[in-house]
Design goal:
With about 575 residues, the protein is mainly alpha-helical. The chain is about 80% helix and about 0% strand.
Length: about 575
Amino acid sequence: MDTLFQVLKLLGSLGLFLYGMTLMSEGLQKVAGDKMRSILAAMTSTSLKRILTGLFITSIIQSSSATTVMVVSFVNAGLLSLTQSVGVIMGANIGTTVTAWLVTLLGFKMDISIISIPLIGIGFTLMMFKSKKRKSLGEFFMGFALLFLGLSFMKDSVPDLRSTPEILEFLREWTSYGFWTILIFVAIGTLLTIILQSSSATMALTLVMSSYGWIPFEAAAAMVLGENIGTTITANLAAVVANVSARRAALAHTLFNITGVTWVLIFYNPILSGVSYIVTNLFGENPFLSADATLYGISMLHTLFNVTNTLLLVWFTPLIVKIVTFIIKPPKGEETFRLKFIQGGLLSTSELSLTQAKHEIVNFANLGKRQFSYARQAVIESDKENDKGAFDRLIEKLEHYEEVIDKVEIEIANYLNKISEGQLSEEGGRRLQSMYRIISEIESIGDSGLNIAQILKRKKSQKVFFNEYMQKNIFEIMDVLDKAFDIMIHNLEQGYTKITNIDLAEDTEDEINKMRIVLKEEHPSNLDSKVYGYQAGIHYMDIIEECEKAGDYIINVSEAVMQIKG
């Protein structure tokens, strides 16, 4: 019974540590989410800047997994190239070593749990404010306190080996297989990180076990190497449903870490001797002989591994890109209508998730534009007597696009609903509300495209034809509509960061309205003078009306973008 209680106590302590880490990371990401996004999106071609960016962001948010998932999502959204993402991931690996040193220097050398309760008090006070930024800062303080409180409980929950020597005997069995021992502990480190979904938590557990003499320095070092492999799993899971480039970025992370672990294992003993030499000279104790020095040895190995691995492999970035590109090939005939940006689920903060939603909405708008390009072709084919097959295929496409547009609207709306459950800034809240309106307007554009298909089907079944005059007017209004689509899509792409100039969008909508008014006024006289027949005139004016409606929906989208700035 005591053993069970001890195990549950250890699991509870680990859970508190993990929760604290998550709360601290998410709090910081909410405070600095837009800055993180801006830094990542503004990447240049310089390898050094990419590495420093990854290092900086991971050092701040204290989670390499969060950074790499963010990177994968940005590659998925087209904000980072594959080459750029590799550099940022390398930097993220270095950034994660900060956590190990924090835990080593503060968690073991200082009893920071003493100030944990006052920190929770500060965090709780900040969370009472209405300001979302202060609430997020409060989350950070509470997360920081819980992290070290969890670490303190974790140390206390580890049984004293002098009173329970059988545990040491059990572990000794695992440490007597020579080099296989090292591989076993690499596997244990990998497995624990996959289960806990946090290399920082596994690192803390490794530090606790080594500080109490459960495992020797060489086994603890092997666990650290395993943690570097296990931490790549999170990004790979995030990329499972993402596009080809994002999956390649996640694979590049895995390839980078596995390559590093491989060369370290080849030179394992000399490397550990080197780490021991550095630690002994810096801290005065040998990690092979002193449990206290083992803490420094593990953190030093973790840092040297990631820094050296980055310095070596950064020169092979083009080769890494070629390898992952060769391994992950784009599927033949990839589904045109697949969600491209939000299939991977929410990002770590609602603010960052809004960026994903924005890119998906731009893709959604392009679907509407593409549907109308088929409507134009269908008008042409509807006047051909012989080739009915081509017309039927175009009608099927128009109907299929309308179905897809309906489904995509629902998927985006569901994603926005999930975002609304998180914390958003005031501008983020306006974005969210505007996005709901935008997707509704784009769905209405799809309805207009379907209506044109049904009008043309009736026209074809009645064997009615448009003359040159009617075709000319339909294509002219469709030309202006095409221009309106381009302006709308441009506004969707730019309007979230800049105040969009809406004048051009309004001018185009006015042009469509004027064309429709002129054609409507001319319609009775055209019927009287036999410019076209009555039946043809009905279908003709119905198409003009649908084009004008689509123009209204398009301007509504641009107006919704303008509302974001308040």
